[in-house]
Design goal:
115 residues; 3-stranded mixed beta sheet
Length: 115
């Protein structure tokens, strides 16, 4: 997933919500496989929630509180999906945005995990 000199953005935050990175040349390492599995799970949850969102939005009797909760859930899975995309090498266009947990701007932290 990453070349020898690249850091991989992991699908979970590090200390204080900061981005967490993995430095390895072994894409089959335990941490690499764990990250792959978590990313797959996050994308699966996003797909399920998107299907649910279509159902909720199609129901004209959905109350505002349910729409608010849906928007919050969609925001969380979008955050996870963007983290997965960044980890896989996609860099979204436009100015960097801040997030609740300190941002995932892709810049390496002072220390990275080796695995």
């Amino acid at each position: 997933m990453t070349s020898h000199n690249e850091l991989r953005l992991l699908p979970w935050p590090g200390a204080e919500g900061k981005p967490c990175f993995l430095s390895t040349d072994d894409s089959g390492s335990h941490l690499s496989r764990l990250a792959d599995n978590i990313e797959a799970m996050q994308l699966g949850i996003a797909a399920e929630l998107l299907e649910h969102a279509w159902e909720v939005l199609g129901d004209e009797e959905t109350d505002p509180e349910e729409l608010r909760l849906l928007a919050m859930d969609l925001t969380e899975v979008l955050h996870d999906a963007l983290r997965v995309a960044t980890s896989r090498g996609y860099r979204p266009a436009g100015p960097p945005s801040s997030s609740r947990d300190g941002g995932d701007d892709g810049s390496p932290p002072p220390a990275a995990i080796s695995g």
